[in-house]
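Database export, one record per block. Field names are fixed; values are copied verbatim from the stored entry.
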Amino acid sequence: MTGVTFLYYLNNVRLKKAHILLTTTTRSIRDIAADCGFSSTGQMTRLFNQFYGSSPSKFRYANTVHPK
């Protein structure tokens, strides 16, 4: 129906949730990975980099406001 494998679809849903949590919370990447259903932080980091072209920590830093 979706034209992609179940695993690809599942990881896409998990990564979208991680994307939202990285930009709206200050929770640790480890906690976000666990909440999104990843078996490890490394797994989430590898997939996040493949989907978004950046590590979760670099993505979070680039998408948050930093005081001067």
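Remark 1: The chain has one domain: 12-62.
Remark 2: Residues 6-24 form the longest helix (19 residues).
End of record.
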